[in-house]
Amino acid sequence: EPEVTQTPSHQVTQMGQEVILRCVPISNHLYFYWYRQILGQKVEFLVSFYNNEISEKSEIFDDQFSVERPDGSNFTLKIRSTKLEDSAMYFCASSGVYEQYFGPGTRLTVT
Amino acid sequence: GENVEQHPSTLSVQEGDSAVIKCTYSDSASNYFPWYKQELGKRPQLIIDIRSNVGEKKDQRIAVTLNKTAKHFSLHITETQPEDSAVYFCAASSSDGNQFYFGTGTSLTVIP
Description:
The complex is a heterodimer of chains A (about 110) and B (about 110).
Chain A (H helix, E strand, L loop, with lengths): L4 E3 L2 E4 L5 E6 L6 E7 L6 E7 L2 E5 L7 E4 L6 E5 L8 E8 L4 E3 L3 E5 L1
Parallel strand pairs in A: 2-11
Antiparallel strand pairs in A: 1-3, 3-8, 4-5, 4-9, 5-6, 7-8, 9-10, 9-11
Chain B lengths: L3 E4 L2 E5 L4 E7 L6 E7 L6 E7 L4 E4 L2 E6 L4 E6 L8 E8 L6 E3 L3 E6 L1
Parallel strand pairs in B: 2-11
Antiparallel strand pairs in B: 1-3, 3-8, 4-5, 4-9, 6-7, 7-8, 9-10, 9-11
Protein backbone atom coordinates (compact mmCIF):
# COMPACT_ATOMS: atom_id res chain seq x y z
CA GLU A 1 0.00 0.00 0.00
CA PRO A 2 1.50 3.40 -0.92
CA GLU A 3 2.48 5.64 1.95
CA VAL A 4 3.58 9.20 2.49
CA THR A 5 7.27 9.32 3.41
CA GLN A 6 9.24 12.04 5.16
CA THR A 7 12.91 12.78 5.72
CA PRO A 8 14.68 13.23 7.99
CA SER A 9 12.95 11.51 10.88
CA HIS A 10 14.72 13.81 13.33
CA GLN A 11 16.41 17.14 12.73
CA VAL A 12 18.34 19.10 15.31
CA THR A 13 19.23 22.67 14.46
CA GLN A 14 20.43 25.81 16.15
CA MET A 15 18.20 28.82 16.58
CA GLY A 16 18.38 31.11 13.54
CA GLN A 17 19.34 28.34 11.12
CA GLU A 18 17.32 27.35 8.09
CA VAL A 19 15.83 23.88 7.83
CA ILE A 20 14.15 22.04 4.99
CA LEU A 21 11.81 19.19 5.73
CA ARG A 22 11.08 16.83 2.90
CA CYS A 23 8.06 14.78 1.99
CA VAL A 24 7.13 12.40 -0.79
CA PRO A 25 3.32 12.32 -1.07
CA ILE A 26 1.37 9.37 -2.42
CA SER A 27 1.93 9.46 -6.16
CA ASN A 28 -1.59 9.99 -7.50
CA HIS A 29 -2.62 12.48 -4.82
CA LEU A 30 -3.26 16.08 -5.75
CA TYR A 31 -3.51 17.87 -2.40
CA PHE A 32 -0.59 18.26 -0.04
CA TYR A 33 -0.47 19.55 3.50
CA TRP A 34 1.91 20.39 6.31
CA TYR A 35 0.89 20.13 9.94
CA ARG A 36 2.68 20.79 13.20
CA GLN A 37 2.20 18.96 16.48
CA ILE A 38 3.86 20.27 19.60
CA LEU A 39 4.50 17.45 22.06
CA GLY A 40 1.29 16.38 23.77
CA GLN A 41 -0.88 18.82 21.86
CA LYS A 42 -3.22 18.68 18.93
CA VAL A 43 -2.36 18.59 15.27
CA GLU A 44 -2.24 22.13 13.86
CA PHE A 45 -2.78 22.95 10.21
CA LEU A 46 0.00 24.98 8.58
CA VAL A 47 -0.62 25.01 4.85
CA SER A 48 -2.28 23.23 1.96
CA PHE A 49 -0.97 23.08 -1.57
CA TYR A 50 -2.75 22.26 -4.81
CA ASN A 51 -1.90 22.72 -8.45
CA ASN A 52 1.54 24.06 -7.60
CA GLU A 53 0.36 26.82 -5.34
CA ILE A 54 -0.70 27.44 -1.77
CA SER A 55 -4.45 27.08 -1.42
CA GLU A 56 -4.78 27.82 2.30
CA LYS A 57 -2.48 28.76 5.14
CA SER A 58 -2.96 29.30 8.83
CA GLU A 59 -1.79 32.18 10.98
CA ILE A 60 1.11 29.99 12.11
CA PHE A 61 2.43 29.91 8.54
CA ASP A 62 4.13 33.31 8.56
CA ASP A 63 6.90 34.70 6.37
CA GLN A 64 9.42 32.37 7.99
CA PHE A 65 7.76 29.41 6.31
CA SER A 66 7.62 28.44 2.66
CA VAL A 67 6.62 25.37 0.71
CA GLU A 68 7.74 24.07 -2.62
CA ARG A 69 7.17 21.19 -4.95
CA PRO A 70 10.55 21.22 -6.70
CA ASP A 71 9.84 18.19 -8.87
CA GLY A 72 7.09 15.71 -9.55
CA SER A 73 7.52 13.81 -6.31
CA ASN A 74 8.90 15.94 -3.48
CA PHE A 75 7.08 18.47 -1.33
CA THR A 76 9.19 20.56 1.02
CA LEU A 77 8.67 22.84 4.00
CA LYS A 78 11.35 25.44 4.65
CA ILE A 79 11.72 27.36 7.87
CA ARG A 80 14.05 30.29 7.20
CA SER A 81 15.25 31.25 10.63
CA THR A 82 14.22 28.74 13.26
CA LYS A 83 13.05 29.75 16.70
CA LEU A 84 12.93 27.66 19.86
CA GLU A 85 9.15 27.53 19.61
CA ASP A 86 9.40 25.86 16.21
CA SER A 87 10.41 22.66 18.00
CA ALA A 88 7.66 20.18 17.18
CA MET A 89 6.76 17.18 15.09
CA TYR A 90 6.02 18.20 11.52
CA PHE A 91 3.71 15.98 9.53
CA CYS A 92 3.21 16.01 5.81
CA ALA A 93 -0.07 14.66 4.43
CA SER A 94 -1.56 14.10 1.04
CA SER A 95 -5.04 13.39 -0.24
CA GLY A 96 -6.85 12.48 -3.39
CA VAL A 97 -10.43 13.68 -3.10
CA TYR A 98 -11.00 13.60 0.66
CA GLU A 99 -9.09 10.91 2.55
CA GLN A 100 -5.93 12.39 3.95
CA TYR A 101 -2.92 10.23 4.78
CA PHE A 102 -0.10 11.33 7.02
CA GLY A 103 3.60 10.73 6.78
CA PRO A 104 5.60 9.46 9.77
CA GLY A 105 6.70 12.97 10.71
CA THR A 106 9.94 14.84 11.24
CA ARG A 107 10.80 15.73 14.80
CA LEU A 108 12.42 19.16 14.71
CA THR A 109 14.44 20.20 17.73
CA VAL A 110 15.69 23.79 17.83
CA THR A 111 18.41 24.44 20.40
CA GLY B 1 -12.71 30.05 10.68
CA GLU B 2 -13.81 26.63 11.83
CA ASN B 3 -13.57 25.69 15.51
CA VAL B 4 -13.61 22.02 16.47
CA GLU B 5 -14.09 21.01 20.10
CA GLN B 6 -13.56 17.49 21.35
CA HIS B 7 -14.61 15.76 24.56
CA PRO B 8 -13.54 14.10 26.73
CA SER B 9 -9.81 14.78 26.81
CA THR B 10 -9.18 11.46 28.56
CA LEU B 11 -11.28 8.32 28.68
CA SER B 12 -10.69 5.02 30.46
CA VAL B 13 -12.85 1.99 29.79
CA GLN B 14 -12.74 -1.66 30.71
CA GLU B 15 -11.89 -4.08 27.95
CA GLY B 16 -15.08 -5.10 26.17
CA ASP B 17 -16.96 -1.92 27.03
CA SER B 18 -17.85 0.79 24.54
CA ALA B 19 -16.15 4.15 24.16
CA VAL B 20 -17.72 7.30 22.78
CA ILE B 21 -15.87 10.47 21.80
CA LYS B 22 -17.74 13.59 20.77
CA CYS B 23 -16.85 16.58 18.63
CA THR B 24 -18.63 19.77 17.73
CA TYR B 25 -17.85 22.12 14.90
CA SER B 26 -18.85 25.68 14.15
CA ASP B 27 -18.83 26.07 10.37
CA SER B 28 -22.00 24.69 8.82
CA ALA B 29 -20.22 24.60 5.45
CA SER B 30 -17.83 21.86 6.66
CA ASN B 31 -18.73 18.69 4.88
CA TYR B 32 -16.12 16.05 5.64
CA PHE B 33 -15.30 14.66 9.08
CA PRO B 34 -12.44 12.19 9.52
CA TRP B 35 -11.26 10.48 12.69
CA TYR B 36 -7.61 9.69 13.31
CA LYS B 37 -5.93 7.32 15.75
CA GLN B 38 -2.46 8.28 16.91
CA GLU B 39 -0.34 5.86 18.87
CA LEU B 40 2.54 7.22 20.89
CA GLY B 41 5.29 8.55 18.65
CA LYS B 42 3.49 7.56 15.46
CA ARG B 43 1.62 9.31 12.69
CA PRO B 44 -2.13 9.98 12.84
CA GLN B 45 -3.91 7.20 10.97
CA LEU B 46 -7.27 7.62 9.35
CA ILE B 47 -9.67 5.09 10.88
CA ILE B 48 -13.05 6.23 9.63
CA ASP B 49 -14.63 9.24 8.02
CA ILE B 50 -18.07 10.56 7.17
CA ARG B 51 -19.38 13.02 4.64
CA SER B 52 -22.16 15.45 5.34
CA ASN B 53 -24.68 13.65 3.16
CA VAL B 54 -24.61 10.62 5.49
CA GLY B 55 -25.81 10.35 9.09
CA GLU B 56 -23.94 7.23 10.17
CA LYS B 57 -21.15 5.00 8.96
CA LYS B 58 -19.88 1.77 10.45
CA ASP B 59 -16.75 -0.29 9.95
CA GLN B 60 -16.61 -3.39 12.13
CA ARG B 61 -16.25 -2.18 15.75
CA ILE B 62 -16.03 1.48 14.82
CA ALA B 63 -18.89 3.77 13.90
CA VAL B 64 -19.29 7.49 13.37
CA THR B 65 -22.50 9.47 13.60
CA LEU B 66 -23.11 12.96 12.30
CA ASN B 67 -25.81 15.43 13.27
CA LYS B 68 -25.55 18.31 10.81
CA THR B 69 -28.31 20.33 12.45
CA ALA B 70 -26.59 20.30 15.83
CA LYS B 71 -23.12 20.38 14.23
CA HIS B 72 -21.72 17.47 16.15
CA PHE B 73 -20.28 14.10 15.31
CA SER B 74 -19.21 11.18 17.43
CA LEU B 75 -16.92 8.17 17.30
CA HIS B 76 -18.19 4.94 18.80
CA ILE B 77 -15.89 2.01 19.50
CA THR B 78 -17.58 -1.19 20.65
CA GLU B 79 -16.02 -4.23 22.33
CA THR B 80 -12.87 -2.25 23.10
CA GLN B 81 -9.53 -4.01 23.18
CA PRO B 82 -6.22 -2.94 24.76
CA GLU B 83 -4.82 -2.19 21.29
CA ASP B 84 -7.49 0.49 20.91
CA SER B 85 -5.57 2.52 23.49
CA ALA B 86 -4.31 5.65 21.70
CA VAL B 87 -5.09 9.32 21.19
CA TYR B 88 -8.04 9.91 18.89
CA PHE B 89 -8.48 13.14 16.95
CA CYS B 90 -11.57 14.32 15.14
CA ALA B 91 -11.31 16.80 12.29
CA ALA B 92 -13.54 18.86 10.06
CA SER B 93 -12.73 19.90 6.58
CA SER B 94 -13.46 23.24 5.04
CA SER B 95 -16.04 23.09 2.28
CA ASP B 96 -13.34 23.28 -0.40
CA GLY B 97 -11.33 20.51 1.29
CA ASN B 98 -8.25 22.70 1.48
CA GLN B 99 -8.04 23.00 5.23
CA PHE B 100 -8.57 20.52 8.02
CA TYR B 101 -9.33 21.62 11.57
CA PHE B 102 -8.45 19.18 14.31
CA GLY B 103 -9.94 18.66 17.73
CA THR B 104 -7.74 18.63 20.81
CA GLY B 105 -7.61 14.85 21.05
CA THR B 106 -8.93 12.18 23.40
CA SER B 107 -6.52 9.87 25.14
CA LEU B 108 -8.29 6.51 25.34
CA THR B 109 -7.05 3.83 27.71
CA VAL B 110 -8.58 0.37 27.55
CA ILE B 111 -7.95 -1.49 30.78
CA PRO B 112 -7.48 -5.26 30.36
